[in-house]
Amino acid sequence: MTQEIIQSQQNEISQEDILIQVLQTQKELKQNQEVLAGDVDYLKNKQPINPSVSMELEKLRKTKVINALGGMESLAYKNRSFAGKVFRQAAKDFKEHFRIPRYDMLQVKDEQAAFDYWDMWEPSTNIKMEIQQENGQGRLASVG
Questions:
Q1: Residue 25 shares a structural domain with residue 66
Q2: Residue-level pLDDT at 30
Q3: Do 64 and 134 share a domain, yes or no?
Q4: Claim to verify: residue 52 and residue 117 sit in the same structural domain
Q5: Which of 13, 65, 101, 139 has a 20 to 30 A CA-CA distance from 36?
Q6: Contact assessment for residue 52 and residue 104, using Cβ atoms and an 8 Å cutoff
Q7: Residues 40, 76 share a domain
Q8: Which neighbouring-strand residues pair with 48?
Q9: Domain that holds residue 83
Q10: pLDDT for 10-66, tens place per residue?
Q11: Residues 88, 63 within the same domain
Q12: What is the rounded CA–CA span in Å between residue 47 and residue 70?
């Protein structure tokens, strides 16, 4: 009888140990799953955009600024100092909108929004007036 009680207690202890081990394993699996979910979130949303995408965005910015200046033949574009100012302002506007210090820090989740941004971007009213003045000065000078 004593032997049966000892055997029964040993079985209960081993069943308890098994249950503890199963629960610990489940806890480890859950922690691993959380780490993987974080990694997937980073890869899908938070990692910086691909350099080729960054180049496409830069190209789109240049096109928008050149068009805003009146094209490559415009006086505003040919005035390198002024054109540089407009290019810098466009880049600054973009970085402020997306709250990034550099173009290549744009997150993957913002990629489409960045293309939409450049589709909609226009220079500020002050810059537009300066562009008109730059382009208008040449016309006045050539007329007079």
A1: no
A2: 84
A3: yes
A4: yes
A5: 101
A6: no
A7: no
A8: 107
A9: 48-143
A10: 566 788 888 888 888 888 888 878 877 776 666 666 788 899 999 999 999 999 999
A11: yes
A12: 36
Do 58 and 52 touch, CB atoms closer than 8 A? no
Q: Do 55 and 107 reside in the same domain of the chain?
A: yes
**Three-state secondary structure readout of 43-111:** HHHHCECCHHHHHHHHHHHHHHHHHHHCCCCCHHHHCHHHHHHHHHHHHHHHHHHHCCCCHHHCEHHHH
Task: Say yes or no to pLDDT of 138 above 60.
Answer: no
Residues 89 and 78 placed together within one structural domain of the fold = yes
Residue 35 CA to residue 50 CA, distance in Å, equals 23
Task: Identify the domain boundary among 9, 25, 46.
Answer: 46
The model's pLDDT over 91-131, given as tens digits with 9 standing for 90+, comes to 999 999 999 998 889 999 999 999 999 999 999 999 999 99
Calpha distance 128→122 (Å, rounded): 9
The neighbouring-strand residues paired with 72 are: none
113 and 53 part of one domain? yes
Nearest C-alpha neighbor of 45 from the set 93, 113, 97: 113
Q: Which residue has the higher pLDDT, 107 or 9?
A: 107
- Number of domains within the chain: 2
